[in-house]
Amino acid sequence: MATPHQYHQPNAPDEDSDLELDLEELDPLAASSSAAASSPPRRPSKERRKRYHELGARIPLRNLRVGRLRSTRRTQEVEEEDLRGLIEDDDAANRSSGGSLGQSGDDHVPLLPSHHARGSKRRQPPPSALSRLSSNMRLPNFLSSKQNTSGTQLDDGGEGGPDADEEHDPTTQRTITVGHLQTSRFPTNAVSNAKYTPWSFLPRTLYNEFSFFINMYFLLVAMSQIIPALRIGYLSTYIFPLAFVITITLTKEALDDITRRRRDAEANSEGYMVLKFEENSTGNGLAPGKTSDSKRRMRKTNKSGGRLTDIEDEEQRLSPSKGVSTASYFEIIKPSRGLKVGDVVKLGKDQRVPADMVILKSYSNDTTPPNSATIVPPDTSPTLVGDDTNGLLDLGKTPSKPSIAATGGASGEAFIRTDQLDGETDWKLRLTSPLTQNLDVGEFTRLQVIAGKPDKKVNEFYGTIELKPKRHSRYDPHDGETQPTASSGVQSSPLNIDNTVWANTVLASSGSVLAVVVYTGPQTRQALSTSPSRSKTGLLEYEINSLTKFLCIFTLSLSFVLVAMARFRVIEGRVWWASMLRFLILFSTIVPVGLRVNLDMGKSVYAWFIEHDQSIPGTVVRTSTIPEDLGRIEYLLSDKTGTLTQNEMEMKKIHVGTVSYANEAMDEVSSYIRQSFTAPAGEAPTLVTPSSTYTAPLTSTTRTRREIGSRVRDVVLALALCHNVTPTTEEEDGETITTYQASSPDEIAIVRWTEAVGLKLLQRDRESMTLQSCESGNLVVRVRVLNVFPFTSEGKRMGIVVKFYHGPASSPTDEDGEIWFYQKGADTVMASIVAANDWLEEETSNMAREGLRTLVVGRKKLSPRTYEDFSTKYAQASLALHNRDNAVAEVVKEYLEHNIELLGVTGVEDKLQRDVKPSLELLRNAGIKIWMLTGDKVETARCVAVSSKLVARGQYVHTIQKMKRKDLAHDSLDFLRGKPDACLLIDGESLALMLTHFRSQFISIAVLLPAVVACRCSPTQKADVAKLIREYTKKRVCCIGDGGNDVSMIQAADVGVGIVGKEGKQASLAADFSIEQFCYLTKLLVWHGRNSYKRSAKLSQFVIHRGLIISICQTVYSIASEFKPDALYQDWLLVGYSTVYTMMPVFSLVLDRDVDESVANLYPELYAELKTGRSLSYKSFFIWVFVSIYQGSMIQGLSQLLVGVDVSGTNIFQRMVSVSFTVLVMNELIMVAMEVVTWHWIMIASIFGTATIYFGSVPFLSGYYDLSYVSSLDFWWKFAVIAMISLVPPYAAKILGRTLRPPSYRKVRGI
């Protein structure tokens, strides 16, 4: 049966045409392009192909092609229209350009682009059920729905553009074509810390505002004024205050969120170098015999161009293309938010990774080709790519930056820093896939990455990278052979975590890396580990909310009592419940709507004070709604790396058995090294080996000094060789600078120290290492690296076997060279490996108490026979299929790890941030319990906890790690119950067990401990701990960090503080408060936090007092007026009382302070007493309620007694109102003055200014006052008597209470 694509073509020439037969024999390639349309594809035999090639190499083809074109030009245009549908058939997509069918496994590999790919801009419909079924069940082609087989559409459009089919399902794996526009939409690569969107802002903020009882209460009061029977005074009297409160709050929230968006925009606009790919003219994805639509249209409009146009067209189709890449490329700058899935990004040293990526190629700067478009030389290194991958840059586009070549010498390695992601200080080694490392960049468009669904696991990734075959034929008549279209089908290579760089990590190694974007924006590892932003409300807000509920109940009770005292009778035509509602509205000032206005304005003042404090420069308040909570913190959860420490290691101490060196004593070590590695004068320099004789100077005659010198040389040599550090050179400002790369900053610190004392690591690769004397500049040590045993968290040690070169430095040899095994590691594991000694345990304990990270160094000499036996058994163990790790460990232990000569102990310090020790001590004295949550190792966390004085000297540290059994968890919890003064050190695995099975028991014990250190914590675990403490204790929790891995913890806290880190601003942007150093936190809490809370507490009490006292006056008047629900102070008097006449003096209390900053820092216990909440407790609240009742009763009662209360007599009522209102205003001003502790000029100005404004406005109050009476002496003596009776008793009681029980601030001030 004929194949499905064997259709009849009416315009095709006969198969036995002499012309076609001759052409097929003479020019097989030209015939094949025609045969693709006129006959079914045939797979010729190898012998026949070879004969065609030989013929094609000898016959001049140009004349034959001209003759063929003359005879076939008339029918070709019709054929091409038929060919278009034929080539788009499924099987045609799997043919080589020579016309042969591909393998069945390659049926769905798109080789030929659809003619719709460039022209059509309409959205493609989702695949039909039949098409999906056909792709799975492999239906015959005549049943398959026509699929879009676009191969290479190289565009810079983004996902989600009109060409994207549909949004990608994030729960499924994704297939990414490198350098192409993706067929599915993916999220944009934008960082967002905003709380609101333009659509959610109003609903969310209004919901938050009216969730407070006080706002809902006033909303109901304002709505009640719509009812005529309940209307009292101006409608605006009730609506404007509420509208003003809501407007102020919404404006503050909007400004805060706009600021966050601006910060996000700054991070999202960071520029990155992206490779832009364009198809080469001969590599455009079109098989010979098919031209693009644009060129076909051009030819149709140019029919009069003669046969030369057709000749050029065919020669372009069949032109030699050997050595031409699939695509050319050039570099463009894209902002971070513009990066798309599939983009190839070029990253340099110390550059932040903007998205989750897979590394394709790594190369050093010295292998970068010059800044011009050049033909890339053939790659001589072995490659897994079967096709010829030499590329040619598009000569028409000169890159603006150095172009990138396949560098055979590149190792495909790169180091990254992940401390901003997982908190680990060690650098991570990342590798490129061998499939892509040696692939020319121009061939990257043939790559396809298959990755799993987005996941929050930062240490896990599984994927595959595939290299598709080339899609075009490469025919060269002078080569004598036609290159096949595809070598051997699709090649694939697995991908794992070692091939990835996640967003927010930093490239640490020199050189550059090319990586393809796999996950963007909210689908990156960091974003998935980050909890969404939430609106935070201060504890003071909740306390005031509960107090206003009591005031509302008081108002309701008072209204009911007055109606009951009137015996529920009808008053002025109103039934009793209408009178009760009017009383409720009259007493609405008891629940002060102005309280929220004053508090919100106060928060803005506190934020201004914080941001303009010159002693904590760079501090930014991003959430201005919770400054009072800074004064209520009881738990501080801190990150380690970059927060407490600088993540900069420094070698501080070395002990060689009999003597210890530190600080200035390091100069003596330098002198020993100078003596050991400097050749005598007049002698040629020779290489030094461990067996070389130590040459002591003439001044050093004692045997002890010579022995010490020899031991110092040996330990420094061991430290200079036993590591995984690679030196690199860079040029900065015309100077060559040597930098070091390694996975551990400890090792870099040690190698830097060996350079400082005179022995420099000059060169290092996988096979050799060279050391140079810093004194003479000569090469002094050269070794061949035989074996390396890298550091693991389980083994806690690192070893290396080297063979020393010897002889003259100019012609060294390693024949009969000494073989030595060097090892360094933690004292806990090295103690059983080194030879017996009596000083190791004591010295390591001493260094640990100083907070130093200790490493024990040893060596062992191996005979050639011993090493040969070891090497044989080691190779055998490495090939074991079962228990390979155990087998290798046994061989190493048998031959190497026993009776090692102990050389010395090193102490490396992880540099702390400035003033961390005194800051932690002050915070601890302030009653704050400090937890350290880090992603780093247990040993590192312990050392920093000791060095930072988080753990006090001599304090017991209870360590829980690698706990997997529940019974052991019970034992640990029981132990901690009996020892509440211990510090807990727990790792992430054990913490997960505790939080899963013993959640309540663990947290109930942990919150009582003075310090907790949790290490190996994931970002999610950090956030869980913060939430757990909040939920269990109901106390305020502050979290501080500097990295992207701390964002979840910061957002989960009541107060989040971010430090502007070296590697980015992610934590700073997501935090409520941003600072530049950890030590700024003490002033933020102990000074600004304490002041903010005490000021707001005093301000809220005064506002409540101001509203309550006028309501008591109204109550007394209602009783005297036979319980009529009429207003005592109407219209302007009511509005002016809470605004113009009292607002500024009361608000000026936000400038008050009880102690100076120096006293607050000297006595942090003043901060500790704030957590009791005594500044705004029920006790202090009821004291102010009683004061308000007393003063309101005295002011209104005495005014009615001395002046009268005749409602019918207008003059008497106005006289009474003038006396009582004047006393009321002056009473409030004097009460403010009585409460001030430290005077500020603004306070004085506001009090006297407000009094002046009031008396100046009296002449304009003729509608409320009897002005003639106000100017009389009778008014003034009654005013003075009532004011004294109102003010003197409360002030006397205050003085008496302060004398009997003075507050703490008066004790420390001595007053």
Automatic annotation (TrEMBL):
Residues 43-52, 115-124 have a biased composition (Basic residues). It comes from the Eukaryota. Residues 13-27, 156-168 have a biased composition (Acidic residues). Residues 1069-1302 form the P-type ATPase C-terminal domain. It is a multi-pass membrane protein. Keywords: ATP-binding, Lipid transport, Magnesium, Membrane, Metal-binding, Nucleotide-binding, Translocase, Transmembrane, Transmembrane helix, Transport. One of its GO terms (biological process) is phospholipid translocation. Residues 1-172, 280-320, 469-492 are annotated as: Disordered. One of its GO terms (cellular component) is endosome membrane. Residues 131-153, 482-492 have a biased composition (Polar residues). ATP binds at residues 639-641, 747, 791, 824, 853, 934-936, 1016, 1022, 1045-1046. Its main location: membrane. Its cofactor is Mg(2+). Residues 183-235 form the P-type ATPase N-terminal domain. Residues 28-40 have a biased composition (Low complexity). Pfam families: Cation_ATPase, PhoLip_ATPase_C, PhoLip_ATPase_N. The keyword Plastid does not apply. It is found in: Endosome membrane; Membrane. One of its GO terms (molecular function) is ATPase-coupled intramembrane lipid transporter activity. Mg(2+) binds at residues 639, 641, 1042, 1046. The active site is at residue 639. Its EC number is 7.6.2.1. Belongs to the cation transport ATPase (P-type) (TC 3.A.3) family. Type IV subfamily. This is Phospholipid-transporting ATPase. It comes from Pleomassaria siparia CBS 279.74.
